[in-house]
Amino acid sequence: MGRRQVKEFRAPETLALIDADRDRQPLVCPYCSDITINRTPAHGPEPTVGRVMLECRTCHRSVSYLERATALAANPFTL
């Protein structure tokens, strides 16, 4: 458990979830194996830029990460 009363995934679990989310694969909770992962904001036709939150509805573990625009991901030195 991370901070007080905040359940978070371990580092390898977090990286696996983020990788699956970026590849738009089905998300499965690595802790409880449930398939009900909430993503905020939801995937849309346009790529999301900013903070993405993933939370399991069953065990309430969560992870957040910053999604970058595809132009920035291709060349991180552009402003």
Describe this structure as you would to a colleague.
With 79 residues, this protein is an alpha+beta fold. It has one domain (11-74). Helices cover 22% and strands 22% of the residues. The protein has two helices and three strands, in the order αβββα. A three-stranded antiparallel beta sheet has the order 1-2-3, with helices on one face.
Short description:
The protein has 79 residues and is an alpha+beta fold. The protein is 22% helix and 22% strand.
| Structural class by secondary-structure content | alpha+beta
| Poorly predicted residue ranges | none
Binned, the helix content reads 10-25%
Quickly count the domains.
Answer: 1
H/E element sequence: HEEEH
For the biggest sheet, the summary is: 3 strands, antiparallel
Query: What is the tally of helical segments?
Result: 2
Mean pLDDT: 82
Distance between the termini: 37 Å
Strand residue content:
15-25%
**Overall geometric form:** globular
Task: Describe the secondary structure blueprint for this structure.
Elements: H1 11-22, E1 37-40, E2 50-56, E3 62-67, H2 70-74
Which terms summarize this structure?
single chain; alpha+beta; globular; 2 helices
